[in-house]
Structures are given as structure tokens and as C-alpha cells.
Amino acid sequence: MVPALKIMGRLGLVCVTAIMTLLSALLSTFIAWLFSFVIHVPNYDVHIFLAFVITFFVTPAFSFLTALSMRELQRSRRRAFDLARLDALTGIANRRAFFDAARKRGEEARSSKGSQAVLFIDIDHFKSINDSFGHDGGDAVLKHFAGLLRTCTRQDDLVARVGGEEFVVLIEGIEKAGLAAIAAGIVARVRMSPVCFVAEQIRYTVSIGGAIADIATSVDVLLSIADKQLYMVKNDGRDNHRIIDLRCDEHPAATENQFAHDAPLNLRRVTPAQIT
Q: Choosing from 72, 107, 108, 165, which is the catalytic residue?
């Protein structure tokens, strides 16, 4: 069944219908010959009529309906495949889809030059939100943040939910200043955008760790470094971001230690122009 679906997908509905019609025409010719020379039915008008009706009316309709059903089955399989790679609650990519897409991008860009970056984002005190507003309130926050995250990132950026309240963004072709601006915009937008839930407003904040490197650097390495930056943000009080550029030093560990002593950016001073 699967090879047949692939073949029909390549040929297209009209082409499949034409092929099946031709095969049916040959079959009807064979039926007419069978009636005439093997079974010896004397009424040749019946043979011709059956062959004509089968070839030009019944067969095209049957072929079209068959091809249409096969195409719909193929679409259903594709939808099921897509749903398996989407987070059911937020509608963005899930963990599996993120890593598959990230590795594919890495293989395609292996010989090219440029940069790629990762933002590792965690919703602060999410357990307290669930405790205060219930799981429905927590789900409302997750869906709200997923929508906000898509508006704060570029169309080609890969946005995914990889854990309960953990999100990641893979960004290509960006420098540290641009990455910091995106992270600052996300933190500020979240702070200014409470979630309307039932008759209440749920206010929440996020913490972001980011890492940027050459495009040849694996996403796993970037995520590991970004996770450490996120941990530092949480230790410093949350509701903030911290970005590291692994290209600033030949030894990422040394660069990380250097940035560990830098004071975090105070996002309370972000202007509206920086948020857009």
C-alpha cells in the first residue's frame, strides 16, 4: 500500500486516472474477445455495448474515485505524521521535531559559513502557576507564551516546546547583538502581557539562556551552553536573559567563565523600540 501511495503521489490524480482508464480499456477489449471467441455469445452488439460502457463511463468514474481515495489516504498519513511532530497543546514543534530539523539544517549548512544560535527559555515559577490557577491556568500560560514566542521570532526560526515549561529557539545567521535584542524583547513582552484566564489575569515571567557559535557547531553543544546560561539567570533572580558567544574564545569553557562574571542586562530599562 505504501509504495502505491508514493507512486500515486508522484504521478498525480489526473495521470493515475488516465493510466487506470487505459488498463480498463484493455481489460474491456479482452472481455469482448472472451465473449466472442471463447464463450461464443452470438449477440455482438452486447459485446460492443459492454466494452463501450466499461471503457468510457464506468472505468473513468471508478478510476477517479480510487485515485481520489488513495490521495486522501496519503493526506491522512501526512497529517498524522505532522501531528506526531507537533506539541498537542501549543501547536509548535515538539522535542523530536526540533532535534530532527536542527540536525538536518546542520548537515545542509556544514560546508557554509555563518552563525547559528539557540535560546533556551523557561517559564519562571511554573509550578506555582499550576498550584494557584490549576492545570487549565498553566495550559493557558503555555499556549499564550507559544503564541507570543512566534511573534517575537523570525519566520525561518525554529521554535519548539521541549519540556513541560521549557522552550527553545534555533536561529541562523545572527550576531550576538541581534540575539540579545530578541531575548530582551521576549522577556519584556512576557512581562507586559498577562494571560486572561476566566475572570483573572495571570502574570508570569521567563528566563532565557542563549548561545551563539559558528554554524558548524552542533545544536547539542549550543543547548548545553545555553542551559548553563539559563541556570545563571535563575540564580540571579530570573526574569532576565544571558547570552554567550562561543566564538569570542578558542576555549568555550574559558569564554563561559568570562561571561559568568559579567553583570546581566537590566531589562527594566528596555524601551518600546527595542521590544518590536
A: 165
Annotation says 165 is catalytic: yes
User: What pLDDT, on a 0 to 100 scale, did the predictor assign at position 272?
Assistant: 33
Asked whether the beta carbons of 208 and 156 are under 8 A apart, the reply is no
Single-letter amino acid, residue 153: T
Helices (H), the chain: 2-11, 13-33, 44-53, 59-84, 95-108, 126-152, 176-192, 219-235, 252-260, 272-275
Mean pLDDT in order along the chain per 10 residues (276 residues):
51 62 68 60 57 61 65 63 75 90 77 86 96 95 96 92 94 92 96 93 96 89 94 95 82 41 35 34
Instruction: Check residue 109 and give its pLDDT.
Output: 66
- How many residues are listed for the chain in this entry? 276
What is the reported pTM? 0.64
* Phi, psi angles (nearest 5°) of residue 202: -100, 115
Count CA within 13 A, CB hemisphere, residue 247.
Answer: 13
186 and 205 Cβ atoms separated by less than 8 Å: no
Looking at residue 120, what is its pLDDT? 97
Nearest-angstrom CA–CA distance, 36 and 31? 9
> Is residue 179 packed enough to be buried (19+ CB in 10 Å), middle (13-18) or exposed (0-12)?
buried
Distance CA 231, CA 243 (A): 12
**Grid cell locating 230:** 539559563
